Here is the input.
Amino acid sequence: MRQVVITGDGLISSLGDHRTVLHTALCDGRSAIKPPEFFSTEKLGCTLACEITAFDAQKYLGKRNLRPLDRTARLVAAAAQLALEDSGFTDEMKVHEAVGLVLGTMFGSIHTISEFDRRALTAGPSYASPMDFANTVISAATGQTAIMQNLRGVNSTISTGASSGLQAIAYAADLIRMGSARALLAGGAEELCFESFYGFERAGLLCPSNNGDQVKYPIPFDVRRGGFLLGEGAALLMLEDASRARERGARVLAEVKGTGSAFDSSRGKNGEKAIKAIAHAARLALKDAELQPNSIDCLSASASGSLRVDRHEAHAMADVFASAAQKLPVTAIKSMLGETLGAAGALQVIALMETMRDRVLPGIRGLEETDGDFPLTMISPQNRQVDVSFGLVNSISFDGHCCSLVLARYP
Amino acid sequence: MEHRVVITGIGLVTPIGTGCATVWRNLLAGRCSFAPVEAYDTRDFSVHYGAEVKEFSATHYLLNTDVETIGRASQFAIAASRLALEDAGLVLDTIGPEQVGVSMGTTSGEPLEIERFDDCFVNEKLERVGAEFMARYPCHNISANIASEFELGGLNIVIPTACAAGNYAVAYAFDALRTGRASVMLAGGADPFSRITYTGFARLGAIAPEICQPFDRHRKGMIPGEGAGVLVLETLAGAIGRGARIYAEVTGYGLSCDAHHMTAAHPESDGAVRAMEEALRSSGTRAEDVSYISAHGTGTLTNDRLETIAVKRLFKQAAYRLPISSIKSMIGHTMGAASAIETAVCALAIHQDRIPPTMNLIEPDPECDLDYVPNQAREHKVNVAMNNAYAFGGNNSSLILKKCEV
Amino acid sequence: MNAIEIRTAVKRTISTTANLETAEIGDNASYKDDLKLDSLTILEIAVGLEYEFKIKIPDEELSEIRTVGDSVRIIQQYLA
Here is the structure.
């Protein structure tokens, strides 16, 4: 079977647009948490988010006409530009070979969809914007990016809630393994906007910013956690068939060794079932990678500060790793990037590649005390020296979708 | 070793009926479903017709899910899944729940939920939006709700690649089965009738006033529809093991992107041709062996012309002997469900050696000069069927189904 | 509003929709042949102008707009 390697990446995040910049920020314990500037959170319980306020698409995409692209599409097109450059894919190469794009996203652009509808509602349907209509399909950012970057291969969009990005990478890796594609950009994206923010707020999933007596924190695994904070971003990996990457003399950052997915049909409501599904996805990824749990050198957890999901993940990992769980260093970068939904899993993979290179695993910012019965012990606010040959990445949606990926140092 | 993948069950919810047998009978009879839109007031629109699913009773199919907790696309999707499982005679208890996956395509997910949000927003009643919005709206709920209804723990994914999404979902299921990531997949697509979609297509001038007439010289556009199609796909070994009826074998697919324009197809159908070529290559099929094409056939001026060009570019002279039809002439454009329902049509055409017609084709367009099986179903030996679907963003998809030879 | 003011507004909408400098847009430039715009962009400009001027131009007339001058003339007609 073909090996799948990562030959480049591109990211737009609230902590920088390059993997090393992101890694440094994570290791410094910096975060972009602040009141969002693009919409008002007045009268809402949560007033904080991880917004990329200064994002300027033109900086990455030049003077091209960006009007047809909404914010999600601009984030993706910019990340694609960076990933193509980073992996050494020239325009010339894209003409000879159809590069594909597999994008994970929970909403596409819920803001565009809603705004399109609202203008038609208030002004009348004949005033609906034709250009915005093209962007109301959930796959709009994937299509717009393909047009801007001349990506003529597979053009797929994956939605599995907050695990969409990692699931997209898993799918893309399978396509390369099977020989259905040779070079794919894969990852995920999500924009921050009022519509999703309000929805999560009403669902009670966001950490309240001011909760009276008992202050809550969006800190993964912390006993005081009270929900997550929303973030945004786009992150793409260039995945290639290893032999082909060798042929073209590409630099390889890491290998996608195995992936696994499972679903909790109780949607997170039944703790036992939720834990079982998370564990199952991780076991499938290990099996796919032909590795035993004790080969894994660190875990990039999905944990975001969610009351339920963090607990389920901790217990599921204890189940998978058994006695090795006590020695498993764990990080949870959503403590600094927020819950970036579709982008989350891809950002975790990129951060983990830097950990492999730099041998430093970022600590979990703000963590003071974990829940008493959490069976993982190597969770701490401090950075940790690690030597990672194999790392596990989890991406778990709050409503049932679980995906895990084993990343390997290469060669 | 790769597993062979077969279709053993079909579940359909369409504007011309619910259930595989009913829909197939109505398709062969050329029954159309176009009527004034009832879902909302079209007074301010310049067009008024749609293809809606009427007399649909969700509670009849939802045995473990409260109908109030899920959106209309999910209701269609669960109904189609239950019908497909019954049609396949598959008893899920006999298979580990983690071995059964779901892959669904959609264009808009659960658009009625964001439309309700928008109604509240413009009326300054946003406080009426509660926790149900996030529980119902995001599109990944479609496959999730199916899995919850049937307690499935395997792969679970929504592929929202607009109007080609059904083909993408079937292609995903095909890969999952042949690589052993699942033993059984429920795969298909679902979309409800949506104000947003209708508004957009109306603004683009793409909606026909009363009927959809693909490939006709005087065609005036598409008619938006709604529905769901779900197929039971399983490994050939599994199907034989349980003595299942096999409709057809899935043998390959091709996906490509024009990378040209969001709403306009490539002028020379470049991407569509590449998708067909890859579908043929990956399934080890020669072009001359294709016996039927289920067209995207939306009924818009551009689509039908370019689709004809694409078929001619690939099939050359053989294109003129190849029956092609568009069931959108009867059920309208069911968006993300369309290519899933059309995959079912290909499977049935193979199983029954009959081809549903392209209705309302009265005066052929000189630029569309192929055999579109006009107005009358046809008996025809169908060994290999190709299902083509295209979408916003320049997405192209072609799927190949064959008569299953054990 | 006179023709000059309308023309300025039309060019501004073209500029923001199609990423063109207003100086590049001739008073009688053809959307398709001179400005090289695709039909979606042309329609977006037309609808954007209807929205801005709060006028309703029937689709049949909208589809007859070929040039910047056509837009100015029709808007003026519907504003009157």
